[in-house]
Amino acid sequence: MDDVLRPLIVVGGSVVLTLLLGWATDLLLRKADERHHETPLWGLLRRGRIPYQLVLCAALLRGSYDEAQLLRSHGSGVGRTLTLVLIGSAAWLVIRIAAAVVETSYTRYASARHQRDPARVRRVRTQVTLIRRVVSAIVGVVAVAAMLLTFPAMRAAGASLLASAGILGIVAGVAAQSTLSNLFAGLQIAFGDMVRIGDTVVVDGEWGTVEEITLTFLTVRTWDERRITMPVSYFTSKPFENWSRGTPQMTGIVFWHLDHSAPLEAMRDKLRDILRECPAWDGRAYNLSVTDSTPSTMEVRALVTAKDADDIWTVRVEVREQMIRWLTDAHPYALPRVNTADAVLPPSRDGRRFPDGIPAARRVHSHPRER
């Protein structure tokens, strides 16, 4: 009878005590979260209740297993298994706690500076994300090393592994050269402020927003919702456009190819009216001027401004569309035309001209270009 009650009391007591302690801790964290709405720390710490209960249960069972006198012939294996579970759950709990603390610090910083310095907030967000990944990787490596050291064979082989560590390090460095370069490039991006999460960039002719940065790769979400995954070493070895670097304000350009008779002053007034009715225009500046001409058309350029890359795109397409529609309705003669001419004939010997006074070689006709 004692052989049955003893294991039941030890195992059952450990499980019940774990559930009680886990419930009490979760209740305290929930009340703290309700009292302190200004910080998300307590709510984030509640995400670690599962690894917390695993640590409690594994520690209680590991400490009281000898008293249970259960599976005595496999005592060593059961004890090592409980130790491995304890190490793994402890590492999981440390990662959750570190993530909660880092996320809380970033949330406070972002709420205080988001309106004044959004670029600085994106930089800190990028650094926080990479730091959290580095901490997780370090804790994971330490946990795996601690698990391996629980095996006597691993401890005995430690001396020989240290002796060959130099050769293995060289071989591993050569084999993982690309991975290591991406790793160091990720750290350089995080602390060098080259590109941040949320930045608008142009890479390989693709325009998009940086959505995710890890230690080895970077994801760009394009305007048509595609995802481009690139190694972070690309951003440290090749030029790219970062439209969010510094201030996000931008100046956009709109071109039209029009006839030489286009009413420029009226177009300037119309551009002003279009921008006043466009919510995406930030009101800083606008301009319209002739930048080039050809024998049949002239190039008219409009400069407009907006607060960021998304708004400048909206302003450009709005100005382009409404100006063409206005020219079509009010000034159709300003649209480009294509001249067509008869075949050029050799001049007559007597210099005779046609009845309308225009030589045959110069007689032309014109019609509006189909749009």
Automatic annotation (TrEMBL):
This is Small-conductance mechanosensitive channel. Residues 179-245 form the Mechanosensitive ion channel MscS domain. It is found in: Membrane. One of its GO terms (cellular component) is membrane. Keywords: Membrane, Transmembrane, Transmembrane helix. The keyword Transcription does not apply. GO terms for biological process: transmembrane transport. Its main location: membrane. Residues 347-371 are annotated as: Disordered. The keyword Ion transport does not apply. Residues 362-371 have a biased composition (Basic residues). The chain crosses the membrane at residues 6-29, 85-109, 130-151, 157-176. PANTHER family: INNER MEMBRANE PROTEIN, YNAI-RELATED MECHANOSENSITIVE ION CHANNEL.
